[in-house]
Amino acid sequence: MPHVLLIDDDAQVRALMRTALQYAGHQVTEADEGRRGVDAFKRLRPDVVVCDLFMPAREGMDTIRELRALSSVGILAISACPFFFDTDLLAIACRLGASAALAKPFPIAAFVAAVEALLNEAAGRDWCQPVLPNLVTEPVSLTGSGGATPRQ
């Protein structure tokens, strides 16, 4: 069972993501800020990490950079504030080591599909089918129009 680490300070957002990922058959571990997320990563070595960019104590950019230094794990950066003035923060997150990025709010099916695509990429497979057939009518690819931004 693939293991996903969720790092986000918003408990309601974590609960929504956790429920969707568990429905898709994943084991999920949660952390409410970056330091706890890195500690959990070191202990558990999940298959994919989902990391919010704006959190107290340790924000997402530093967390992503540290995770990338530790491993080549797939990292999905997420943010409700993808732009700061004219700066595309999700693109910066990708340059710092995120494998993909998704702006909040996102369709939950697109979120699960992005996680699945990172898992498939890590396993050497291409994305080929919907994760939640009752909710997704077409496969969502990181390079398609599902709202995800591929790593450059």
Q: What would you say this structure looks like, in words?
A:
With 152 residues, the protein is α/β, with parallel strands linked by helices. The protein has a single domain (3-150), classed as Rossmann fold (3-Layer(aba) Sandwich). 38% of the residues lie in helices and 21% in strands. The chain has a six-stranded mixed sheet with strand order 2-1-3-4-7-8, with helices on both faces. The protein has a two-stranded antiparallel sheet with strand order 5-6. The protein is globular.
Highlighted features:
38% helix, 152 residues, two-stranded antiparallel ribbon, alpha/beta
How is the biggest beta sheet arranged? Answer: 6 strands, mixed
Fourth CATH level, the homologous superfamily: Response regulator
> What is the number of helices?
5
Tell me which CATH architecture applies here. 3-Layer(aba) Sandwich
What is Rg? 14 Å
The low-confidence parts are 125-152
Structural class: alpha/beta
Mean pLDDT score: 81
- CATH fold group: Rossmann fold
- The beta-strand count equals 8
Order of helices and strands: EHEHEHEEEHEHE
Helical percent range? Answer: 25-40%
Q: What is the terminal separation in angstroms?
A: 29 Å
The strands making up the biggest β-sheet line up spatially as: 2-1-3-4-7-8
Q: How many structural units, i.e. domains?
A: 1
